[in-house]
Design goal:
Radius of gyration of chain A: 25 Å
Pfam family, one (chains A, B): FTHFS
CATH class of the largest domain in chain A: Alpha Beta
CATH architecture of the largest domain in chain A: 3-Layer(aba) Sandwich
Oligomer: homodimer
Number of domains of chain A: 3
CATH topology of the largest domain in chain A: Rossmann fold
Shape of chain A: globular
Distance between the termini of chain A: 30 Å
CATH superfamily of the largest domain in chain A: P-loop containing nucleotide triphosphate hydrolases
Structural class of chain A: alpha/beta
Largest sheet of chain A: 12 strands, mixed
Enzyme class (chains A, B): ligase
Largest interface: A-B, 94 and 94 residues
Helix content of chain A: 25-40%
EC number (chains A, B): 6.3.4.3
Protein name (chains A, B): formate--tetrahydrofolate ligase
GO molecular function, one term (chains A, B): ATP binding
Chain lengths: 614, 614
């Protein structure tokens, strides 16, 4: 591959956007060619972004997979501990400095928060994905496709309820069958056990069953989405215009990345698999029968697939040192699994080949992101991590250790437990201690020693933020050693899918969070039973829990043990294929502060250069 | 240019999507090179779409402009009379058959209706823009960018009102000035006449004036938008979640193309012009003072520009016969001017050069689309049409003539008046009679004769739908003759901008619609006065009126004269730069029928081919 080391490093480290704009990106077709992507597999989106066609997987079907390395972290502070930065910096070290074949797979960030509080998510300092403006904004439109698809599904649901409420069985059936049964209608006929192909052949009872979804409004599971920090859309009442004749309903918007369609994009393995998953999305239950009503039943799943046809292709970008990056899918870590796409990982593993490395990031701390990476993503992808990198900062350890215990206590509690958790899965855990300017060598070495004492494969200080790939060479070497161990530990899941949903939640709560007990609210109990009875009992679990503590209480640092984990509610992502219990309340669309980031974001009209983005 | 005639024509004409998928598109970089676009000016979006950089206008600043030909139509039926088809077919005729340099500029269609009732808008039959799926779906994301920008503006407005309602002057000012005054804040300071650069320097009174926009909720002019046919969003109540503490408000969504930002995209002439226009959008009036509150005042206009940075570049596609097409901007003809972008026209005129032709389509009938093309778009662009093509069908003339008068009466009333109207502007009018399968030669020739008798420059039968460019060669020849007349008529506007708003409305109503009188509702009167008093009196007028009649009553066919045009309300697009009177009620977001088009749209998962789109 044709990487290039950074030419010039400034101190103190300049602003992210200034560093990002100071390096001219390589033409993306050159990055692609160096990574082994054929030009017929590439769809350019401007000079610095491209989509890669899935046919690459067919061409490389027999190629050996590279080593998959997952980057995770300890329980973070509100500032984040630099997982993305480490993922990118390690990639630069492996590629541009250690001469290895390497690919980095990261999540696409939500666009809305760029204009609110949070800065971008392209890494930081001298470890970034570039161009960072394009990374943080539209990219190639995947988030927009999800918004369009999700909202078509929601519109189809409300329109269908309206038409059912205002038309007789006969009129409804007549209008639905104005044209011959379409592909998706035949799916509904099959589900109903009606083996007829002509609309006229159905009996009145069959017509009624076909045409009346009879959706129970209290069970509706679909909300609309927008990729905007719009707090006033959290709770809304729709249908208030006269044309809707009083058919009002209370609902709300989530941020786009919280859409189930995003989780589907992240977990799907092919176009036909995506088609099936989209069709299986459960939008509500039928009144009386409790039968799940799906996107297939609404007749909209083919159209959703068409809207998502391009989004399924991973997006190719590059790091500051020219190593290739797939940016693909960014499911909301609060209510979904928070991992980038299965397809990007699979393609990258083939592209780097048997000796190469693929780095992929798992959102939040290892109690959430890494656990879901294994139990949900690895199950969907069939891939196995060769090693995990646990990102640690002194700042976070200090918080966990508290005013009395300090860094050492934080390391011995929070970090040690994350190391232990990772090792439960049979995955070697390498601690990457992200160096900050004021960190002392002594404190850093103490933490490394604690990490090794608690079972870390190795622990190294990394300085990629201020130095680029050169600052993460020691980390790269540790990763390479771990991946090439002659006798690696045996990888394992902590629960089998055959276990019932309740027990699976218990396993995660006890083994990973270390709760002494789990309680289920009556609503949660009821839904779990319903899921089991409708055939969703074999899905994995995706707990929606705060990232700021092993427990459900964000104020409990360190390694709490004496808590009871309360499951307030559970939800189903039948298309993405997981059940997600809610622990506490989860905000699914952020708001704007009094001075949002947008005040500082502007465009130099002469150069077209974006200013003020961070 | 390297065009290629269609190889095979089938009869009867196959479905649009089958024709579209039967022709392999040329690589878009070849189309670009043939059209004279430098590779450094091209940003590919996959193999068949590209954006063209505005720097092309600098390179070709001194090149002569080609002939600008605007395609318009008579008052249409509900099926449409084929303006897009004619625009595309004429392009194929001029380029692939008559050997001329030609460029076609069309609007980007709304994505939402593709899944509702309406079919695509890429032309039809053997006169289409391809790939038609990409034309009708995401294209290069311009509509998505508008959705994002419009909704960021709306979120900023509601969030600001919330923060003002829940914070003291002091707290508000302190939070707003946590960071130094940004570029956009300095605009507000300048507007308020405060000549200070440090936050601490402002007096308490100046701080209050700076921080309190004090928006009058009854005057809010911004609605949210989505590109989805979602009738339940027409009227909504926002702010119903507990976190918004009871600050509820009734509002609604429009379809994305109805956003003022779309109209701005269509009328802007450069990146810096777009920045200024976005900043000038009036979102509401201040309580008490009635001062217009703008996107600049909200501090969000720089961010809006950043979101629209790529959307400003026209999108290059091709016709079935390989002639180049710009697809750029599609302002909702119901409430905006319904014309494609000024930038696409300007670039195309330079690219074809002095002897070439640029075809551009104006939405709706000539009473609306052509009038706005001249008074709004030509004012913004500075371009002048050399000729207008008036699209006519026997079907529409029959409707206008009624059961007794028939086609001839329809031609002598509706068509004749449109010809007369076009000629009022000093533009030669060529009638293109769109041939349908069952049309008789006799009827067609009758209409041609009537057209010539009523002042048409020429009238020809066109059969591009069934024959491609070969079917529109006679039309192409008529257009070429008209554009090369040695003594062309003098182009003129029907009203000067200096005229007051009321009088401008009167001119359009009397000269174009032929109303005998215009009435203004009190609300309309009040607003017109407010606009005049705030400096918006010099804007052009964009009447929002039904397209199905010269009058405001869609049931009045032919050429009515004895009607009073009632102006119910008026609105302001200060960024797009027009005032739009509302005649009757305008639906700004469509709904889904009982069997929407999405039932038939699906994806062949094996080939990835889209099926069922029309």
């Amino acid at each position: 591959m044709t990487f290039r080391k950074l030419k010039k490093i400034e101190r103190p480290t300049p602003a992210d956007i200034d560093i990002a704009q100071s390096v001219a990106p390589l033409p993306i077709d050159e990055v692609a060619a160096a990574a082994g992507i054929a030009s017929s597999e590439l769809e350019l989106y401007g000079p610095h972004k491209a989509k890669v066609r899935l046919q690459l997987l067919e061409r490389l079907a027999d190629a050996p997979d590279g080593h998959l390395v997952v980057v995770t972290g300890i329980t973070p502070t509100r500032f984040g501990e630099g997982k993305s930065t480490t993922t990118v910096g390690l990639s630069q070290a492996l590629g541009a400095h250690a001469g290895q074949r390497v690919f980095t797979c990261v999540r696409q960030p939500s666009q809305g928060p760029t204009f609110g509080i949070k800065g971008g998510a392209a890494g930081g300092g001298y470890a970034q994905v570039i161009p960072m403006e394009e990374f943080n904004l539209h990219l190639t439109g995947d988030l927009h496709a999800i918004t369009a698809a999700n909202n078509l599904l929601a519109a189809a649901l409300d329109a269908r309820m309206f038409h059912e409420a205002t038309q007789s069985d006969e009129a409804l059936y007549r209008r639905l069958t104005e044209k011959p049964f379409s592909l998706v209608m035949r799916r509904r006929l099959a589900k109903l056990g009606i083996d007829k192909t002509e609309a006229v052949a159905l009996s009145p009872e069959e017509r009624r069953r076909f045409a009346r979804l009879d959706i129970d409004p209290d069970t509706i599971a679909v909300r609309r989405v927008l990729d905007v920090n719009d707090r006033f859309l959290r709770g809304i009442r729709v249908g208030m215009a006269e044309t809707e004749r009083g058919h009002q309903r209370d609902t709300g918007f989530d941020i786009t990345v919280a859409s189930e369609i995003m989780a589907i994009l992240a977990l799907t393995t092919s176009l036909s698999d995506m088609r099936e998953r989209l069709g299986r999305i459960v939008v509500a239950a039928q009144r009386g029968t409790g039968e799940p009503i799906t996107a297939d039943d609404l007749g909209v799943s083919g159209a959703l697939t068409v809207l998502m046809r391009d989004a399924i292709m991973p997006n190719l970008m590059q790091t500051l040192e020219g190593t290739p990056v797939f940016v693909h899918a960014g499911p909301f870590a609060n209510i979904a699994h928070g991992n980038s796409s299965v397809l990007a990982d699979r393609m990258a593993l083939k592209l780097v080949g048997g000796d190469g490395y693929v780095l992929t990031e798992a959102g939040f701390g290892a109690d959430i992101g890494f656990e879901k990476f294994v139990h949900i993503k690895c199950r969907a992808s069939g891939c196995r991590p060769a090693a995990a990198v646990l990102v640690v900062t002194l700042r976070a350890l200090e918080m966990h250790g508290g005013p009395e215990g300090g860094v050492r206590a934080g390391a011995e509690s929070n970090m040690a437990r994350h190391i232990e958790n990772v090792r439960k899965f049979g995955v070697p855990c390498i601690v990457a201690l992200n160096r900050f300017r004021d960190d002392t060598d002594e404190a850093l070495q103490t933490v490394c020693a604690v990490a090794r004492a608690h079972g870390a494969y190795d622990a190294v200080v990394a300085a990629h933020f201020g130095e680029g790939g050169a600052g993460a060479v020691a980390l790269a070497e540790a990763v390479m050693r771990a991946c090439n161990e002659p006798h690696p530990p045996a990888f394992r899941m902590l629960y089998p899918l055959a276990m019932n949903l309740r027990d699976k939640v218990q396993v995660i709560a006890r083994e990973i969070y270390r709760a002494k007990e789990v309680t289920f609210a009556p609503e949660a109990e009821r839904k779990l039973e319903w899921y089991e009875s409708r055939g969703y009992g074999r899905l994995p679990i995706c707990v929606a829990k705060t990232q700021y503590s092993f427990s459900h209480d964000p104020a409990r640092f360190g390694a709490p043990t004496d808590f009871v984990l309360p499951i307030r509610d559970v939800r189903l992502s039948a298309g993405a294929e997981f059940v997600y219990p809610l622990v506490g309340s989860i905000q699914t669309i952020p708001g704007l502060p009094t001075r949002p980031a947008f005040y500082d974001i502007d465009l130099d009209p002469m150069s077209g250069r974006i200013v003020g983005m961070s």
